[in-house]
Amino acid sequence: MKKSLLALAALTAFAGVASAQSSVTLFGVVDLNARGVDNGTGSRSTLSQDGNASSRLGFRGVEDLGGGLKAGFWLEAGLNPDIGGTNMIADNALLPTGTPASTAKSSQLFNRRSTLSLMGGFGEIRLGRDYTPTFWNHTVFDPFGTNGVGSQTNLQGVAGSAAQTLVRANNTIGYFLPSLGGLYGQAMYAMDEGANPGNEYVGGRIGYAAGPVNVAAAYAETKLPNTNLKAANIGASFNMGFMTLMGQYHEYKYGGNKQTNMMAGLVVPLGAGNLKFSYGQTELKTAAGKPKATQIAAGYVYDLSKRTAVYVHASQVDNDAGLAYTAGSGGKTNGAGGFKSTGYELGVRHSF
User: Fold this and answer.
1) Angle at CA 186, nearest 5°, toward 180 and 190?
2) What distance in Å separates the CA atoms of residue 199 and residue 35, rounded to the nearest whole number?
3) Residues 173 and 267 sit within 8 Å (Cβ to Cβ)
4) Where are the alpha helices (DSSP H) in the chain?
C-alpha cells in the first residue's frame, strides 16, 4: 500500500513538472460598434467591428526544452463578430489607392498570425505569417492603434504598388533580438515561392525603450515585377505621466511615385479611461502633382474592467483633388477625390 502511495505521489509530481514545462492559452478580442461614415456624396450607418481593437481568436503555447531553450507557436484568426464569421482575407487596410480589394482566401484561417518559434538567450527565430517590421511603427505609435475611424492608416496606400507586405507577409523567416537593456530589433525575409508576387520582402527594425521613452526606425524593400517598393519610417513616444506624446513619419517610394506621411498624437489619462487625439497628413508625389490629405481624430475609451471597455471615436479626412481617403469603411467614395469624409463610432470591446 505504501509503495502504491509512493508511486502515485511520484507520478503526480512528474505530471506537475511536465505541465509546468509547457502551456497552451486560448485568447481573443470581440469588438463591435455602431459606425457612421459620410463622404459628402452619401452616408452609411453600419454595425461594424474593430473600433478599439482587432477582433480575433487565437491559440498560443510555449514548451520549455531545457537549457534555456523554448519552443512556441502562435495561431491567430481574424473574426467578423457582426456576422459571426472569420475574417479570411488578405490585409486591405493599406492597399494601394485605386487597386482592387484583396480576394477571399478560404484556406487562410489564421490570417492574422501563424508562427512557430525557437527562443533562448540568443533571441527568437520565428517562422510563418507575421507582421512586417515596417508595419510595427504604424500601430505602436498611433493613439488609436491603427483601429477604427481614427486610425493613422486611413491616410495610407501607395499608388501603383501591388505589394502585399504593408501589414503582414507570408512565408517569413524572422529573427528577434534578446533583451539588451532597452534595445530591441528584428529582421525578416519573406519568400514569394514563385507564386505570390508582391510578397518577397527584406526588412528590419531597431528600437530603444527605457523609462518614458520609446523610439524605433524601420526599413524594407518588397520585390515587384517592375521595380521595388522601398519603405522607411520612424516612430517615437514619450510618457510624461499626465499624458503620452506620440509621433511617426513614413516614406514610401515606388517607381516615380513617392508618398510621405506624418502623424502627431497624444493620450491623456482621464478618470477610468483615456482621451486620444491625433493629426495626420499625407502627400502623394506623382507626375500629375502633389495632392495632400489630412485627418483629425479624437476619442475616449472608458475601462469598465481590465478586460472590457466602451469607446467613442470621431474623425474627419480632408482630401485634395486626386485623393479619396476615407474615415474608415463605409459611405460612397468619389473617384475624382477632393472631398471630406467624416466618421464616428460608438462601441464596446471585450478581451479574454
Assistant:
1) 160
2) 33
3) no
4) 2-21, 133-140
Rounded distance between C-alpha atoms, residue 314 and residue 342, angstroms: 8
Q: What is the mean pLDDT of residues 97-118?
A: 69
The residue to which cell 460608438 is assigned: 346
The candidate with the shortest Cα–Cα distance to 31, out of 50, 48, 57, 56, is 50
Q: What radius of gyration, in Å, describes the C-alpha atoms of the chain? A: 22
- Regarding beta strands 85-86 and 229-239, do their DSSP bridges make them parallel or antiparallel, or are they unpaired? unpaired
**Joined grid coordinates for residue 241:** 505621466
**Reduced to 3 states, what is the DSSP secondary structure of residue 142?**
coil
Burial tier of 98 (Cβ tally within 10 Å: 0-12, 13-18, 19+): exposed
User: With 60 as the cut, is the pLDDT of residue 106 above it?
Assistant: no
Under DSSP, is residue 187 helix (H, G, I), strand (E, B) or coil? strand
Instruction: Give CA–CA dist 317/337, Å, rounded.
Output: 11
H or E element at residue 9? helix 2-21
Q: Which residues pair with 183 in a beta bridge?
A: 180, 208
Per residue in 251-302, pLDDT tens?
Answer: 999 988 899 999 999 999 999 999 999 999 999 998 888 999 999 999 999 9
All domains of the chain in start order, with CATH: 28-351 (2.40.160.10)
At 337, the pLDDT band (50, 70, 90 cuts) reads confident
Q: How far apart are CA 58 and CA 61, in angstroms?
A: 10
CA distance 54 to 59: 16
43 residue type, one letter: S
Q: Are strands 22-38 and 43-49 parallel, antiparallel or unpaired?
A: antiparallel
CA dihedral over 299, 303, 306, 308, signed as positive or negative: negative
What distance in Å separates the CA atoms of residue 8 and residue 16, rounded to the nearest whole number?
12
Decide: 166 and 91 in contact? Cβ < 8 Å. yes
Cα–Cα distance for residue pair 250/284, rounded to 1 Å: 12
Q: What is the DSSP letter of 337?
A: B
What are φ and ψ of residue 290, in 5° steps? Answer: -135, 65
Return d(Cα 188, Cα 78) in angstroms, integer: 23
